[in-house]
Amino acid sequence: MTAAAPSRERVLRALFWKLLFRGRSAFDAAATKRAKQWSLGGTLAVYTLFGLLPAIGAFMLPPLAFASSLHALTLMFASLSLASSAGTMLFVREESEILLHRPVRPEELLRAKTSVLVSYALLLALALNAAGLVMGLWNEGNAIWWPLAHALSTLLLMLFSASAIVLAYNVCLSWFGRERFDNLLTLVQTLMSVVLVVGSQLVPRMLRSDELRQVDVAASWTILLPPVWFGALDAVLCGALPLERAWLPAAIGVAVTFVLAWLAFVRLGAAYGRGLMALNETATAESDRPRRRPLSWLVRHAPLRWWLRDAVERQAFLLTTAYLVRDREIKLKLYPSLTPLVVMPVLIGIGPGGRRGGGEDSVFLETLALGYAAIVPIQAMHLLQHSEHWRAADLFRSAPLVHWTPLFHGARKAVLCWLALPAVVMIAGILVVLRGSASPMLMALPAVVAVLVSSYVSGLFGVWLPLSKASTAQNVASTGCIVFGFVIAGSMAFSGLAAWMHWLGWFWPFFAVAVAGGLALQAAFLRSMHERRWRPAVK
Amino acid sequence: MISIRGLTKAFGGALAVDALSLEVPPGQILGLLGPNGAGKTTTLKMLTGMLEPTTGTALICGVDIVREPLECKRLLGFVPDSGAVYEALTGLEFLLLVAALYGIAEAEAKPRIRRFLDFFELDERTLKGKLLGAYSKGMRRKVVITAALLHNPKVVLLDEPLDGLDANAAVGFKALLEELAREGKTIVYSSHVLDVVERVCHRVSIISKGKLLVDGTPAELLQAHGAATLEQLFTRLTGVAGHEARAAEFAKHMLS
User: Fold this and answer.
1) A500 vs A130: CA distance, rounded Å
2) A31: which chain B residues are within 8 Å (Cβ-Cβ)?
3) pLDDT tens figures, A147-156
4) Per mean pLDDT, which of A67-71, A341-345, B55-59, B163-167 is the most reliable?
């Protein structure tokens, strides 16, 4: 007698676990799997270490404040990680061609995907709470079954987060078309990475604040905070607070979780199928609306016409720009990964006290912050080398091109024009507003030099062709991290030097030397690239 | 086996399929022809439950695809023209996944997969060891066809199935289709390759702008419209006249 086939949901869960670890396209599954396992192990280790910080609160905070702070941290990191991967996993365009014509219910698909996402987020959440689960036993008033109670409330918190995310995506997909939905998805993920970076800076400060000690469930505003609901649930389960004080927020937490779960998975579960169909539908439908082409107008007129005189360079610029604006995969990877590179410098530039006004110490921080922007072109060029349309790069190899560098420069200039230089301006602008001082505008000048020089770095390591590598290849690239580290160190040293020169009153001579040095480096980089032979044939 | 009544699909204001009605009995291979954007793929996607019809009904072996999608999907096998697969799975992993979705246990699926392997001359080591992302287009197409036929469906819908297959595999696949039809399966074959359709299909439907233009056996259609070949009939019904003259004019200007 042969074993019966496993249930469809079990099969789908196994599939989505595999895809979570391997990616959706890969050449060497074993290498990708190993890299992902290492990456997961590293993430869990970092989360466990980070969880030590709120766990110390067990010795200082009252039970509700302690449990709420753990849930706040979990909501901040594990739930946001869940949210950032949910969009990519829930809505894959080609999936309808693979699965929708098979006997699979949309609800089953949704449940399988969500259970994988929730399990993954729960792993992260447990790593974050590992120290708290143990140290909570010493928290005043907590019962011996605190670890069990807190694990249960964390599970509920993850269910709450997953339901809220799935519900939000389903509602958005019902209201917007696919193209708008793609933009919305990118926007949501970018915002989440902003919240994550800002949160990682703010949470440790909040944990040291006295206000947290006085969290009281009786105060009307605290009842609006989900971490307090689940913190109250801990307190109820452990008997750490009188029932009459904690039952209401705990009940709200449980009720909201179940209502959201019902709405997301039962009420709107079928809508998920319609959403997948809609992705399919709009892909089939032809838009009659003519596209406006402001970009082609821009490149035909000064100053871009002067900057992009080479025809191949100009076309590579247009290709890169089109992918920056239109391609879902590039947008979802690029913008969330660039956001921390803009937000972090702002937080560094503001400094610990967030003081206003000038002073040499603040100029130093601002210059360091602006120098951080030198990573933007490296990160962007790294990501723009990879695409799901990598096979189309055969075009560059089959075309009678004398060298690959025009393609590189076209992409590099697009990155400078639309990402790196605007990033410098944005960081400087935000710092000017927040500090109430004009010095960031001046200190942005060395940053511009650093950004221009660093934009060549990606072309120094072999042949660089836009969108020419399979998407998953980037996950196993380790040299990128080393280059990244060198550029950060170099840029920080350069910024530090600029701030020091400013302090000595030698800023303008320094800037002149920096520009001359930048030009010399540029010439050396260009020579190095041109000397590299262009062998279009792939080995 | 397939019964389509007034099937319509509108995308916004545009009608992709306009009140299409067709009956395809068991054992018949229907060639679905039409120029680009005629509505062939949209029709197939509605028949497979991938797209919801705006109006009209489609029955697969008497089962309504809108009312009982799961039942319908068990009865049909579909080869999409995109050939989409999970590229991070090996060929074998993908086929076992598909088998499990149709409720076929691994022990039962493996011998079936082996029979397809033999038929398509696929290397077992490749199927087990290599990820689909690294397969050639033809190999991937063979896996997609295997995935469509693995559960022995009663109705088979094919959208450009020969795309990427080499001549030997294509000949073998056409013979397989004829054999499947003899066994009583209903087959809809959508393609742009007219001579293949003319040789393989028992009946041909030509659609344009979502509407059915003609429907009948190739011989009947050629006779009724006084055409020598299906290609001639197709261009007469859906294309522009004087292709040779236009091509000559274009080449003259292109080369000047």
Assistant:
1) 44
2) none
3) 999 999 999 9
4) B55-59
